[in-house]
Amino acid sequence: MPLRLAKAGEKLRSLRRKLDDFEKMLMISGVLEICRRYLVMNMFDGALAALGVIMGMWISGIADSRAIIRTVFSAGLAMFISGALGAYLTERAERERKLRELEEATFQDMRGSIYERSSRLAVLVVSVVDGISPLMACTISIIPFILSQVLAVDFTTAALASFFVSTTMLGALGYLLGRTAGEKPLEYVVFMVLAGIASAIVIVLLGTHI
Hints:
Layout lengths: L1 H28 L1 H30 L4 H42 L7 H28 L1 H9 L3 H27 L3 H24 L2
Helix pairs in contact: 1-4, 2-3, 2-4, 2-6, 2-7, 3-4, 3-5, 5-6, 6-7
């Protein structure tokens, strides 16, 4: 029994050290600030894409919940793949450049150092956040349509619920920006919601005239 407790204690200490190293690498890489920007920008894009599809089909009289689910989710998946790959390649190139500059400035080989490991972690985290955020926004936006298939809710009700969910999500993003800026969150909430709705309307109008 004492041996098991000793092993459990050692595992706990090892896990704590790994968590401390992980937190240290996040701080060194400055990845949290980058991820916050990517999260807001790409969730906005995802919500905007969903709003455009939903409003476009609604105005066109295409009352097909399954078509909306497939279209919006496919758009989110496409943004996930392109966003993750683009962010990975871009962030990797930038991190490699900074690492080489640090090596030249310090006359040291940074391979295997905490700075290199921080850079690799940052590239992975940023690419995941960049890809998953628009997909998450698209998925959240179509939840009412998914539920409508189970609860037998009519298309109009599902569309209104989805519109409410999408605009609420935009408001939440605006609130996050307001808190980050240290200013009045309400102004950011209103701006983000109005910007999203206006952008979706423009997309729909352009789509109907092309």
